[in-house]
Amino acid sequence: MPGPGRAAVTLREDGAVPSGRRSSKRPYGTEHTPLDPDRLRGGRRTEHGRDGEWTVQDVRGSEREYRCPGCDQLIAPGTAHVVAWAADGMFGPEAALADRRHWHSACWAARGRRRPTR
Ligand SMILES: [Zn+2]
After folding, report:
1. What's the CA gap between 45 and 56, in Å, rounded?
2. What's the gap in Å between 71 CA and the centre of ligand 1?
3. CA-wise closest residue to 41 among 17, 62, 59, 67
4. What is the pLDDT of residues 36-91, one digit of tens each?
5. From ligand 1's centre to the CA of 66, what distance in Å?
6. Interval between CA 88 and ligand 1 midpoint (Å)
7. What is the 3-state secondary structure (H, E, C) of the chain?
8. pTM of the predicted model as reported, rounded to 2 decimal places
9. Which of 20, 24, 66, 112 would bridge with 102, disulfide CB 3.0–4.6 Å?
């Protein structure tokens, strides 16, 4: 029987058992994954604007930043925004999808009043 101060397991002053090993598990989602709109079904919708028909996809937040064509400001990683691409793209849906743009939600909603800067 270990005497006082000679316990088999030495606890730290806060009472916790020292951790000799770290979990090798990584938090899910730390890997960079390119946006795959087909994986994000749910918030997708089609909008008809003066500038044509658009497929709009809500995005909860990306891991990288994008430049919003509406205000020419960056959309910070993790910021909810929308991705839009032409639903009636003249070069086909795949080309339109490849040319998708990331917009602030408010900028997208206001695009009828503000032309894209690029
Ligand atoms: Zn914007």
Report:
1. 5
2. 4
3. 59
4. 555 555 578 999 888 889 999 999 988 999 999 999 999 999 999 999 999 988 88
5. 10
6. 23
7. CCCCCCCCCCCCCCCCCCCCCCCCCCCCCCCCCCCCHHHHCCCEEEEEECCEEEEEEEECCCCCCEECCCCCCEECCCCCEEEEEECCCCCCHHHHHHCCEEECHHHHHCCCCCCCCC
8. 0.59
9. 66
Letter for the amino acid at 89? Answer: G
Q: How would you class 40 by CB atoms within 10 Å of its CB: exposed for 0-12, middle for 13-18, buried for 19 or more? A: middle
The residue assigned the tokens 């339109």 is 96
Round to whole Å and give the CA distance between 74 and 107. 12
End-to-end CA distance of the chain: 77
